[in-house]
Amino acid sequence: MDAYPAGSLDHNVPFLFVSGLSSAPTKSAPTDPVLREQGALVRSELPPIESREAKIILRCIRDRDATSLPWNSWDTSRRYKFKIRTIGREFLLPPRRARLPENFEKPLSPPILHSPFSPLSPGSSLYPDGLIDTRWLQKHQELIPSVCLSFYSLISDPTVATLHDNQLKTDINAVKNAIAQSGHKCRFVVVILSDQSPSSVGQFQERLENIRRATGLDPKTSLFVLPTQRTEADLDSAVDSVLTAVFEQAVEYYRDLGRHSRKKKSRGFAPQPTVPPTTGTSHTLSLQGWNVRYDFKTAIFAEFRQEIDVALRSYEQAYETLLGVDVLEVIPGWSPRFNDARLLADVIAIRALKCLLWMGQSTAAVRRWQAHHDRIFDLVDRRGHGTQNYGWKAWEARWSTVMANLIEKVQFPELEPSAVLPYRPPEKSLSAERLQPWEFLHHQGYWYRVAARHLSNRRKLAMTIPEDDRKPPDASMQSQPKKAYGYDTYMCPEPHEEYPLVGTGVNHSQLIFDHLMLARGEFQKRHQIRTSAELALEGCKELERMREWRQMMDILTPLWRTMSFRTEGWWDIMEAVSWTLRSAAVEVGQKDLIVAIDWELLNRGFSRRPGWHYDITKSLDGVAVEGQPVINFDDEHVTSFLEASFVFKYEEGKAGQTCPAQLSITSNSFPDAAPVVLGVVEVEFEGSLRTIHLKHQATNSQKPSTSKLRVAKTTLVEVETSDDADSDDASQINSEIAAVILEGTDDLTLLPGQTRVFEMDVPLREPGDASASSIQVTVAPKSFILNYTMSIQDTNSVGLWYSQSSSRKRITRTNPHKIKVLPRPPKMEVRLVNGFEQYYASEIIRLELEILNEEDADASTKLDVALYGQNAPSYKVQIEDGAERLSTAGAEESSLDGIPVGTIPSSKSIKATITIDPVNGPVVFDLRVKARYHLVSDPATPIIQQETYHLNIVNPFEASYDLFPRLHSEWPNYFNPEDIQDPSEGDEIARRPRGLAQRWALATRYASFAQEDLAILDLDVNILSTQGAVSCKTSKSQTTAGDGAVISPKTIEEAEFELIAQKLDLDDRSPATADLSFIIKWRRLTSAKDVVNTTTLPLPRFFVTTAEPRVLAGVSYYSPPASSSSSDPEPQLLFLDITIENPSSHFLTFGLMMEPSDEFAFSGAKTTTLNVLPVARRSVTYRLLPLVRGAWIRPTLVVRDKYFQKVLKIIPTEGMKSDRDGVLVWVPPPEDEADGESGESSEEEGEGA
Question: Of 553, 539, 625, nearest to 584 (Cα)?
Fold first, then answer.
């Protein structure tokens, strides 16, 4: 839209002058000297406000300038839009009436003066029959504001307040009167800034009311008071409120102007000019012409009011009147007014398009765009200079560019680069219609592309201008009339300027290129790759015309490297891009691109270019070359005329053997192309195979008449290279393997259309999967070295195997370039000599390995040992007569790699010992032993023998535990002088416990879970920790298993320990606990006697002292001596001791009640009361005479705490037991019965014998 006059297409928003907040610029003056001379100066005598708050307010106002906002109605956050201009204290308004010409004779009656922008004024460029021009638009856009917003300050100093108020009133009235005298109806609004806060500004209410009455300003619409003592956010909000009120005044101003235009149109007659025309056509503007002018003004004023629908109706009415039979149809095509009317039609149509797009009617806008194009086409074809000339094509290009510019201004979200569709869907009112594709609103790239095509046609038509018309006007006077009327020069230069004989004229290529690049940028943003590539190619053709080679390279080189047309088979596009880029590369001297393009264009899939040599060795002929550059590229970016494949004959092979393979290379070059001599062919592999190098060795055996297929047998030889010079010791073996290549020689000359097959035996070394990854060919003429790499991809197609008889056989497997190398069968054995089915926790595991070499040759061996399992312990490995290696523990793995074993002679063995540290619990480990070796006769072939052993480690013992209370013989005594401890002894001397002591019996039952007999060496209980200030001691209460005692699998043994716990302080009566562990020392029967394994079994936490009273029952037996006079045995007496311990600090009373029984008679109190002092104990003894023998009797004794009425449980001790009903006492049988039973058993044994 820049081609149209400035301001003719600008979006109209209310024009606002802001005065008094800035000192520059001082005024807005018209550019026309006549208007500047006749204009009305509006000046204020008071200085501008320079306070900090004024600068903040000015910034807030400038931030609300709507000049650069998108042309749409979606931003509803603002209730107003202004075009804001800040001025000083004076501005210039254009004159309301034009003056009479200087040489004009004054008529008898006073003449009627009109606006200087009207066609009625003789001084106007429209006089006498012009319609309207952009000067009228610029008057309302740049010169006459809708509102003049003037800022003043209110002084709070009472000494000068009256004087300042009088000056303020005088200045406001002067400005107000100056605006009124100018004849313009723009509004004047005053804002008074006070340095007070909003709450304290009320004290100046009387002064403000006096100013209002003196100036006659309305406080609701024209006079505002703005306290400035507030935050910036509050100031911003206050400015927003003021501008909202001012916007209503601005809208009312433009509504009055629109009403005035409609009123003049309704008069129904054409006004008379100030001076009747006497020259030219001598006629004035018709009534229909005035109606066009009035409708256009009405639409502009509606647009100022943001009433877009009203503006659209007025634009359409003005457009139809303008292109009707009474206006444009009656203007001669040779008249300058015809082009002026065309310009006005374009402006009205563009503004109508803008209104449609503003309201979201995109499809209607496209139709309106096409309708204007068709109507102007018909008008120019009938009444103008026709449409087959460069001027019409220039207009079509401009018309397409206008649509692109409008889309950029409107900024539809549906046309953003991130949108899914490249066009905007139609509006809902048209969704049911069957629309053509071009009726959708496409993004701006589409319109720029259309404009570029019209510009190309413009160039074609410009180049058809005859030479006579291309001469300057003064060169041939005879052709001047023909040039004046034969060409359409609407908004475009004359023929001699468009395409002159001498000089440059219009740079059509630059215009086309600019539009193509604009279109390409939009298509690229939306990832329309093919279209953007096409536009780039067209643009580079224009650059080729301008000889801008470097710019061509910048555009085409990335496209040529990455274009998708290669894989999609668009050979014609590839060819066009390649030849265009090559011409630029030759001019720039880009040698690698030249060679790469020539290499690609050798393919006969392209069309043959006449006269081209098609010889890769001549690519750099005519290009300055220094030295012999090395050029590298691959098939990812360049399509080659060569096709290469590598095929293994078999799918599997074994290490140490060879596998037949074929390398085939086919040339698809043009039949008349020169043969290609490959210097080197290199095949790279993924996996363990070595690189293959085939070198060229010229022979005379190949003639030009050689068949299209040639199979040659090639011998490969291992050759060492110097690449391993920098290898370190740790990777020396790998470096040596990587530095060995397989080398062969043959004649590598390749004729056009020929297939060369090289058959070879590839040695297989290391086991694993291997595949041919790439094939690189090298061409090395004198001027350069070319390395082209072809990658071998995985495909589902089968391969071909060629024979010497030129026959082909399919290899019926996919991916024939892959091979699986099986390990060479190892003949070295790794044996575990002393393995067990089961190992036990807490023992050191010693494993002895024997490595036996059954190969035919000596083997250089290394050992890898790895232990897998949870919390793998450390271990050490010692080779026979060698150093010891120690591993580190790991969470899941502990490994040692590369343990040197040395050279094992054939049929000999070497032993290795693995010692694994003890583990604490059951676990399963996997021990992997890998012997890596190579034969001394074949060091390049590694061989691996691997064995895995499962180590099942279990707990050898499980145990259960019971803690029984016992009666301790000692009890603390307050009056014992030995318990008194000197506090001056300090902490260095261990404190002797003097608190309460309790004795316990710990009974353990342990079972063997081993699969073999184990020797028990010792049993013990260890005190791990105590809680509660207690001292514990343990001891064996009976003889336990000693050295050499054997426990069999799945048998249970018992052991009993005595535990005495005593509080450190007598005053401490809190309960205490102890953590214990049961320790079993053992060994295998097959182990040496000095081997001791210790298994520690943790015990649950036991309470070893209590703070509650407890009742302990003990029993003793008394047998009276036998009497000689009586044959009956004396009855046996039982003494039942009941001991009550009171560890608390309370005086306790207990009631004891013994109930009679049929099983025994007792002597003692049946019911008694026992008082127990604090920290004391008392005992009561009952004598029992059992009435039964050899049985358990139950003394029914109840002990009750009389204070709490709680029955205490009686705890049995040695020789007693208890159940749910109470304690039980064992009564042994009589001695004679026991002897009789033993005698009967002896007799039975004798009879049995």
Answer: 553
